Amino acid sequence: MNKRQRLYTVLAGGTAVIMIAAGLLYINNRGVPAVEAAAYLDTTTRAMPVTEDPLQFLSDSSQGVPGMQLVAEDQRLALYYNEETTEIAVRDGKSGEIWYSNPKERAEDGLASAYEKEVLSSQLNVSFRDSMGTLENFPNFSSSISNKQFTVGQIDQGIRVNYTLGDTSLGIDALPKLISKQRLEEKVLSKLDATVARYTSARYYPTKNNPDILERLDGQISKQLVLNKMLGAFETAGYTVDDLAFDNQENGVEGGGVSDKPSFVISVEYRLEQGALVVTVPLSQIEESGQYRIRNIDLLAYFGAADTKGEGYMLVPDGSGSLIHLNNGKTQEEQYVQRVYGADPNDNSLSRPQVSESAYMPVFGLKNGEKAWFAVIEKGDGIASISADIGGRQNSYNHVHATFSLRGEDELEMYTSQKMQEIQLLSDEPFRGDIQVRYHFLHGEDASYSGMARLYQQQLIEQDVLQPLSEQTELPFYVDVLGAVDKKASFLSVPYRTTLAMTTYEQATEMAAKLQQEGVNRVQMRYQGWFGGGISHHTPTRVKLDSEVGSRSELQALSAKLEQSGGALFPDVAFQHMYHDDLRFAPSSDAARFVTKETAELYPYNPALNRMDQSKDSYYLLSAAKLPYVVNEFADKFNKLGLGGLSLRDLGQVLTSDYRDSRVIHRETAKNIVKEQLGKLEQSYPNLMVSAANSYAWGSAQHVVNVPAGSSRFNITDEEVPFYAMVIHGYMNYAASPMNTSGDQDLRKQLLRSLEHGAAPYFQWTYEPSSRLKLTNYDSAYATEYAYWVDDAVALYKQANEVLGNLANKQILKHERIQDGVVRITYTGGTSILVNYNADAVTVDGTTVGGTDYVVGGMNR
After folding, report:
1. Helix%, strand%, coil% for the chain, nearest 5
2. Which residue spans traverse the membrane (predicted)?
3. Quick one: 414 and 286 in the same domain?
4. What is the mean predicted confidence (pLDDT) over 502-530?
5. Is the model's pLDDT at 861 over the cut of 70?
6. Is 282 exposed, middle or buried (0-12, 13-18, 19+ CB in 10 A)?
7. Distances 531 to 301, 617, 717 between C-alpha atoms, Å
8. Residue 570: burial class (beta carbons within 10 Å; 0-12, 13-18, 19+)
9. 3-class DSSP state for residue 215?
């Protein structure tokens, strides 16, 4: 090679390096491709058309509802409307029960203050902030109904009520601040009688700079009597809003014609559909005034409320499900409030008031005597919270309802030389889709949480969310294997990251063989830490196997071994938590943003400190707009491994908003993006496992682990119920949290809990001693050594399989709490399980159950 050739080679190499560096810099600045978030907004955001004709009342052949008119009816329900108060009522033709949007006897409530009575009379309660962050509330009774600021129109099978909340009058600004002498004469004075014209003309005076321009004399007009006369004169003359806008613009008056007082226009639609009441608020048509921004909307807070004589409970979706007994007397405890699908992780607050179970389902209900209602949030569930409170605190009514957060909120700390001030920030862009709640009505034996579970289950079946399992004779056995674990190390005081092999593929194969040898065949193995540098793996757009735990052929051999006896391998991946800032993930462009516009970087939560632990490794939240690209890239690489199963660590559990200025994504929009990705992955991997699946993920999951088996135990609640399990049993295989790493490692009680929830056994194992996890991010897995647990796990599985093995495709018909610590579960086909958590034996309907024991179909097992 001559000198010129060598020079060309060096130049070409240098150019290539520069181009690669420039490309990486471009990627790092621009990030991975994003989808258009608007495409995932619910497209049915336009309100149902309202007829031009006045509201037509229907003839009512039934007993009707006193003080109300019939506006719609179907084969079961009749919808009534009060013209004065805008409240509605639903009459159930099957049972004769009437459910009211507002308590009938609220005016006689001696406990409620005047303000509380306004709230009791409202269908909406709107909370909003001004530009300084001051929070205010508008119950629509006092801010709209009492002032007759509403209209109503007919829609298909229902009505639409349009509310204007707040004072929309302009006051003195309804009169032009400046107006030409010619236009005052032409538009106003010439159309008034002489006396009124002189009175009006005297309140305008020529300006110094231009006598042809007249200025309003505010000192005189500000008096209410004078203002009323002037407003009347301009109205008589036919002076319009357009005239005012023209004069303001012509004379350079800014802000004139716009009220500086808070006001909002909000519509509520009520319609009957398939034997249910459907309530919709089209958020795209909300109008806000000036600087005022809506934060939350409480919808029908007192629908079907129960008074002090009520007997029953409210169902709330806390964890597996919780009941709040009506009038339980816990007036010193805080009311129940919980965000649907858990708190938004896009919250930069280091501390949190309480760590609790999540609310996995967008449902709530109330039972009162022999009747009940049950509600499902069908649209806007991603931005919803459920609130419930008992009577005896602020008023006499037990009530449960949904609240919708139209904007994100956060605190901004402002520092000066002398002090720190916290300012409440709201995101600029509100959610613009619909919110919609469907109310069902139950009576008699169906008026219970068991009846509510059956009803919700049937609705999901009709929507093709739940598909029945085929008949099975053996329970699955779930095991969560920790493979490669990332760990900090140092050499000569220089820190670096290394990967620790806690379970290799060969060792996991040995586990599977041992279980099969002991008669445990359907082993469903979730394997965490197999690619990308351990459990906290790199951005999953690249799939590089961790050599510390084995080769590709050994991974495939493990999968084949499990499939031999009806099991499966589920390699685990996290799509929404980004654990590393690498060349495939740029936080500045790919991470979500807080309301404060900071990059969403978080730390693991430490319950002992009640705050995020900044001594641990941080992670980022991936923007939902980038999720489709990341999922597609991962799937392309993962397909080459030829594995049939996949475990989703966070995709069915986490919903993250993104408040980036150029791309605002609310949680409801994020939910729709996530659902699309779940659907794509299910098509590629029909055997999909989801951890702690929220209800929107059920339609894509064949296996769910970390199912809630308890609640947060809020002080105001009274009972835990397995509502989650009652809905999905017979339609997917599932397990609660690993038995050996839960707070209660009493395997006997764990067995009883599995029998109550119909859940398969689940363990988390490492082949190596769990002591090796010390000083890693996974030191909480301190009791995972496989050799210590395997014999007990096999024995427990055989007991559970004997009871539940033939019930996997059966529905749970009923769950009853016979007494404290004693429950009975009844399945389709007649099988019942009586579980006694107490230390002493109990006798129920002639059947004796020993202490911490169970009876199936009347025979001890």
Report:
1. 25, 30, 40
2. 7-27
3. yes
4. 98
5. no
6. buried
7. 49, 18, 43
8. buried
9. strand
Residue 48's Cβ-count burial label (10 Å; 0-12, 13-18, 19+) is middle
Q: Is residue 230 part of a domain?
A: yes
Same domain, 387 and 450: yes
832 in helix, strand or coil? strand
Contact 34, 626 (CB under 8 A): yes
CATH number for position 134: 2.70.98
Same domain for 127 and 222, yes or no, is no
Q: DSSP assignment, residue 47? A: P
Q: For 799, which DSSP code? A: H
Q: What is the pTM of this model?
A: 0.90
**Which of the pair, 420 or 698, is modelled with greater confidence?**
698
* Residue range(s) defining the domain that contains residue 191: 171-250
Residues in the chain: 861
Contact indicator for 451, 736 with CB cutoff of 8 Å: no
336 & 455 share domain: yes
State which of 418, 440, 460 marks the end of a domain.
460
Residue for token pair 């067995």: 751
* Residue 335 maps to a domain: yes
Q: Mapping DSSP to helix (H, G, I), strand (E, B) and coil, where does residue 824 land?
A: strand
Specify whether 354 is located in the same domain as 212.
no
Residue where a domain terminates, one of 188, 219, 250:
250
- What CA–CA distances, in Å, run from 757 to 702, 724, 748, 752, 760? 17, 9, 14, 9, 9
What's the pLDDT at 256? 61
Q: State the pLDDT at residue 419.
A: 66
Question: What span, in angstroms and rounded, lies between the C-alpha atoms of 146 and 148?
Answer: 6
- pLDDT (average), residues 326-339: 96
Find the range with the poorest average confidence among 349-353, 636-640, 807-811: 349-353
Does residue 425 share a domain with residue 344? Answer: yes
Which has more confidence, 552 or 584? Answer: 552
Into how many domains does the chain fold? 4
Tell whether 348 and 420 lie within a shared domain.
yes
The strand pairing partners of 478, in sequence order, are 524, 762
pLDDT category of residue 418 using cuts at 50, 70 and 90 = low
- Asked if residue 331 belongs to a domain, the reply is yes
- Amino acid at site 860: N
pLDDT at 11 over 80: no
DSSP string over 554-600 = HHHHHHHHHHTTT-EEEEEE-SSEE----TT--HHHHB-B-TTS-B-
Amino acid at 591: A
pLDDT in tens, 355-411: 679 999 999 999 999 999 999 999 999 999 999 999 999 999 999 999 999 999 887
Whether 322 and 443 share a structural domain:
yes
What's the rounded Cα separation, in Å, for the pair 703 and 692?
Answer: 10
pLDDT band, residue 858 (cuts 50/70/90): very low
Binning pLDDT at 50, 70 and 90, where does residue 618 land? confident
